[in-house]
Automatic annotation (TrEMBL):
Its EC number is 2.7.1.-. It is an enzyme of class 2 (transferase). Pfam families: FGGY_C, FGGY_N. This is Rhamnulokinase family protein. Gene3D superfamilies: 3.30.420.40. It comes from the Bacteria. Belongs to the FGGY kinase family. It comes from Amycolatopsis rhabdoformis.
């Protein structure tokens, strides 16, 4: 994406879009799900070629995943996808020496099986050959500039970052058996990563082009672009493959209630804290579409969403945060199995299945918004939905109903906008703080409002656990 920023002006243009996803390859463990990171880098270069004249480059991506470099700065193996099963059981093993409570007290992180800490432990012997660990945006930035570093918002998702001290948690790393040499110096959004290495600068015809650190965790960039009015009590849902549901805080929330609710305290741009829960997200829907396509029965998203809108409300609901929805696979079968287990009749048509997923997503948003509010003692008067989910009318409408407050939907390309705004500020634009950036979003981006209409959400929530089901 290229962005143009000026007084009262903020525009994005899509330059190049390419698919991303896991690549499963056989090995002695059975198989491993990797990322095609060189393919991604090739597309980045092609995109830079297509972009024409730009003032800077900022990179954001999903979190937690990384590449390991050897002493010569060469990539050691192909980065592994966080949905791979190599981390199965690892958290339990690590927590024998490093109790979950202690991990949370230092890092403030939600327990997820794929936290970088657990992935690094799963590497085992391979770590001995590694000199540096670079998270995906830092790895791409390294290839562009030759500069090694760890951008802070993404570092905060590793479970190796001390959220209060704002440094790497070297002690935790050592106790988990992770060499601290792997953790490069931290950099902040707005810092200059470097300029293009000479070969690239020549090839692309862009001498001196700077790479600027942004909120390199996509969710951190997306939260920058939440168009909240400064004085409102807002929650946000960054709704894409994942749904990140929570509040923006000034200080981490590390109490018992936050731990019990399994919330995370990720670091945001300008030192904010993203107090949120990872909800499984639209992944379950896209995997459903993929399952149908693989079977030779492809479905069009707009069509199944229209069918879902006409299907009966809250006929069946599932807890999308259940671990069985994490790995790739046959989601329709998994949804049906969970319905049976919780004493509900599985959806019988495509529309009903999609309705079940979207109802369940809205229910998960309701629960996370309520818990965020309870744990922090802060009321929520409006929910901002940003990211791809903001263009899903059914989801936004049901989210307003489920949460019982208005939903403001948009912008869709929140991560890209947040990236561009932080970059523009670093390059001299007059955007002193988050409030100024958000004002510019409100002035320039289309937003849509959904009023809550009610519904039987509390009763549906009780069905999630299958309470009262006789086995
Ligand atoms: C969203 C996201 C989430 C992170 C997940 C895995 O794209 O970055 O914030 O928990 O992907 O990296």
């Amino acid at each position: 994406m290229t962005g143009t920023v000026g007084p009262g002006r903020l525009e994005l243009a899509e330059v190049r879009r390419f698919p991303n996803g896991g690549v499963r390859v056989a090995d002695a463990t059975g198989s491993t799900l990797h990322w095609d990171v060189l393919g991604l880098y090739r597309e980045v270069l092609a995109g830079l070629g297509d972009a024409g004249a730009v003032a800077g480059i900022g990179i954001d991506s999903w979190a937690v995943d990384y590449g390991l470099l050897d002493a010569d700065g060469r990539l050691l193996g192909n980065p592994v996808h966080y949905r791979d099963s190599r981390t199965d059981g690892v958290a339990g093993r690590v927590q024998r020496g490093l109790p979950a409570r202690e991990l949370f007290a230092v890092t403030g992180l939600q327990e997820l099986p794929f936290n970088t800490l657990y992935q690094l432990v799963a590497e085992g012997e391979r770590l001995a050959a590694a000199e540096t660990m670079l998270l995906i945006p830092d790895l791409l930035g390294y290839w562009l500039t030759g500069r090694v570093g760890a951008e802070r918002t993404n570092a905060s998702t590793t479970q190796l970052y001390d959220v209060r001290a704002r440094t790497w948690a070297h002690d935790l790393a050592e106790r988990a058996g992770i060499p601290t040499r792997l953790l490069p110096a931290l950099r902040d959004p707005g810092d200059r990563v470097g300029t293009l290495v000479p070969d690239l600068a020549r090839e692309l015809g862009k001498p001196e082009l700077p790479v600027v650190a942004v909120g390199s965790h996509d969710t951190a960039s997306a939260v920058v672009a939440v168009p909240a009015e400064p004085s409102t009590n807002f929650a946000y849902v960054s709704s894409g493959t994942w749904s990140l549901v929570g509040l923006e805080l000034d200080e981490p929330e590390l109490g018992e209630a936050a731990l019990a609710a399994n919330f995370t305290n990720e670091t945001g741009v300008d030192g904010k804290i993203r107090f949120l829960r990872n909800v499984m997200g639209l992944w379950v829907l896209t995997e459903t579409l993929r399952t149908w396509a693989v079977r030779g029965e492809p479905a069009d998203l707009a069509t199944v969403l229209a069918e879902a809108a006409d299907a009966p409300a809250l006929a069946a609901v599932v807890d999308l945060d259940a671990p069985e929805f994490l790995p790739p696979g046959d989601m329709p079968a998994r949804v049906a199995a969970v319905c049976r287990k919780t004493g509900q009749r599985p959806p019988e048509s495509r529309g009903a299945l999609v309705r079940c997923i979207v109802d369940s997503l809205a229910l998960a948003y309701r629960r996370a918004v309520r818990q965020a509010s309870e744990v922090t003692g802060r009321p929520v008067d409006v929910v901002h939905v940003v990211g791809g989910g903001a263009r899903n009318e059914l989801l936004c409408r049901l989210t307003a109903d489920a949460c019982g407050v208005p939903v403001l939907a948009g912008p869709v390309e929140a991560a890209a906008l947040g990236n561009v705004l932080v970059q523009a500020r670093a390059l001299g634009a007059d955007l002193p703080d988050l409030a100024a950036m958000r004002r510019l979003i409100r002035e320039t981006q289309p937003l849509r409002r959904y009023e809550p209409r009610g519904g039987n959400w509390a009763a549906a929530e009780e069905r999630l656990s299958g309470a009262g089901v006789v086995a």
